[in-house]
Amino acid sequence: MPFTPGDRVDVRSNTSLAWRPGTVRMSPAAHCYAVELDAPVSSDQWSGVTRRYGGVGTVGGPQNLVYVYSQVTSVVPNELIRPEGG
């Protein structure tokens, strides 16, 4: 399912983490969606990885969007991004 800027979605960085609501700010120009989370979270909460790749800095706000990447031409439906409320 394609999403366009302004669409409300739930996103997560991997399948073991919780869904987080947000708004699509950029559609898949480079096979990714840029999403502004409703409530920015720490890098650790978004990535589930501490130390080198995570951290306490917040991500997901207006100046620091999160990105849901696709490896091919489309994101697997409902794996990392879905319509809000699922």
State the shape.
globular
Uncertain parts: none
Number of strands: 7
Q: What is the averaged pLDDT score?
A: 81
Question: Biggest β-sheet: count, sense, barrel?
Answer: 5 strands, antiparallel
Largest sheet, spatial ordering of strands: 6-3-2-1-7
Measured between the Cα atoms of the first and last residue, the distance is 12 Å
- In helices, the fraction of residues equals under 10%
The number of distinct helices, counting runs of at least 4 residues, comes to 1
Quaternary status of these chains?
Answer: single chain
SS-derived structural category: mainly beta
Please give the radius of gyration in angstroms: 12 Å
- Give me the strand/helix succession: EEEEHEEE
| Beta strand % | 25-35%
How many separate structural domains?
1
Describe how the helices and strands are arranged:
Elements: E1 8-11, E2 20-26, E3 32-37, E4 41-42, H1 43-47, E5 58-59, E6 66-69, E7 81-83
Antiparallel strand pairs: 1-2, 1-7, 2-3, 3-6, 4-5
Short key terms for the protein model shown above:
86 residues; mainly beta; five-stranded antiparallel sheet; two-stranded antiparallel ribbon; 1 helix
Question: What does it look like?
Answer:
- With 86 residues, the chain is mainly beta.
- The chain has one domain (8-83).
- It has 1 helix and 7 strands; from the N terminus they run ββββαβββ.
- The chain has one helix at residues 43-47; strands at 8-11, 20-26, 32-37, 41-42, 58-59, 66-69, 81-83.
- The strands form 2 sheets. The chain has a 5-stranded antiparallel β-sheet, with no helix packed on it.
- The longest helix has 5 residues, at 43-47.
- The chain is globular and about 30 Å long.
